[in-house]
Amino acid sequence: MDYINRAINIKELLEKGQVLVIYGPRRVGKTTLVSNFLKEYSKPYLSKTGDDIIARTILSSEDLSRITNLVEGYSLFFIDEAQQIENIGKGLKLIVDSQKEMNVIATGSSSFDLANKIGEPLLGRKRTITLYPISVFELLKQLPKSAVFSMRDTLLLYGGYPQIVTEKNVSRKIELLQEIVSSALFKDIFELEKVKSPQKILDLVKMLAYQIGQPVSAGSLANDLDIDAKTVERYLDLLEKNFIIFRLGAFSRNLRNTIRFKQKYFFWDVGIRNAIINNFNAISGRDDMGGLWENFCVVERIKRNAYIGIEKPNYYFYQSYQNQEIDLIEEMNGYRAFECKWRAGKLSRNKDWKTEYPENPVLVINKDNFTDFF
Q: Judging by beta carbons within 10 Å of its beta carbon (0-12, 13-18, 19+), is residue 49 exposed, middle or buried?
């Protein structure tokens, strides 16, 4: 495969008077997605990037005449890496308010920074979507089920970044992942947030990579890192808002003896997680398959739900002090519960859930049936 068709259809999402904002990690394919759309776009368009100092100066100026002179005469305006531009929300607002027939697309790799600059100025004038690493859902749209099934172990080891999925050479896959981790993954955090102790963030990420699937607290992480809990919370927030990790809170409704004050942290891409700890060992010889499989299943389910356009569910995990557990609970007009078991035939132990929610049985996702859930 030279290119994976993505689940996001830009043509269907464009609306005049609205800015289409596409969030997502660096190197996940946002620019490629828009560029491929523009290849088929028959009307005049203008494409700029936040790295372009002239465009950055004009769009951050809040000067209507300068901004109008930049975009006038085009049917569509695309600004890539918009998080690089101060006051970009106000600049885009001037465009959509003055150019009523123009379509506008903005992409950004830092949801924290871009959301701050776009949110309030574009209130009621934007549509936001997130592009994730390539999902099993997207692969199943393009390939036979058997082909996707055969990619399972490769996806578990190297993840879903487009450049990684299409690369055939395993050594090159690892090189590319290591390059993403070393040069792109933390770029917005270090450049835009001016973190005083970058090594502590790197240590925190590595710690989370070793503890996927395990409930943790900010306090315990702070103790291990020898920093205060508030700093850990800030770092975790930055890592989430830059699409590196995400958290699941604990589910406690009506269930007894529940662990309530811890979180589980997962990576948006398991290949990135493996690169962080430099572990690309074969699936058959790994001692972390439980956590790795859980991370893979949880993130693939969340991506699938996002792409099919259902109302965003709330997501939780459940674990009791008696070690009854459920890996993923979706709350949306009721509950759906999932356990992630690598080996087929392993059953979930969750007596409390079965007693309290008998109409919502726990579904087991294993290495043989995973395509049915994604």
A: middle
pLDDT digits (tens, 9 = 90+) for 165-193: 999 999 999 999 999 999 888 887 887 66
Write the pLDDT tens digit of every residue in 33-73: 999 999 999 999 999 999 999 999 999 999 999 999 999 99
Same fold, 10-130 and 136-372: no
Query: Given this model, what pLDDT does residue 116 score?
Result: 73
- Strand residue runs (E) in 76-187: 76-80, 103-108, 126-130
* Most distant CA atoms of the chain, gap in Å: 67
> What pTM was estimated for this model as a whole?
0.92
25 in Cβ contact with 109 (< 8 Å)? yes
| Unique residue bearing structure tokens 């949801």 | 111
What percent of the chain has pLDDT above 90?
Answer: 72
Tokens for 83, please give them.
């998080």
Q: Which two tokens stand for residue 100?
A: 């009523």
Helix (H) or strand (E) holding 114: helix 111-118
Give dist(CA 324, CA 361) in Å, integer. 14
Q: Where are the domains of the chain?
A: 10-130, 136-372
Cα-Cα-Cα-Cα dihedral sign, residues 252, 257, 262, 264: negative
Task: State the number of CA atoms in the 13 A half-sphere of 285 facing the CB.
Answer: 4
> What is the dotted CATH code of the domain comprising 136-372?
1.10.10.10
Of 120, 172, 160, 197, nearest in space to 272 by CA: 160
- φ/ψ of residue 179, rounded to 5: -70, -40
Domain 10-130 CATH (choose: 1.25.40.10, 3.30.2350.10, 3.40.30.10, 3.40.50.300): 3.40.50.300
* Strand locations in 64-215 (E): 76-80, 103-108, 126-130
Rg of the chain over Cα atoms, rounded to whole angstroms, equals 22
- Residue 344's closest CA among 320, 372, 374, 318? 372
- Give how far Cα 79 sits from Cα of 99, 112, 126, 157, 320, Å: 15, 18, 14, 34, 48
Indicate left, alpha or beta for 100 from its phi (over 0: left) and psi (-120 to 50: alpha). alpha
β-strand pairing of 103-108 with 19-23: parallel
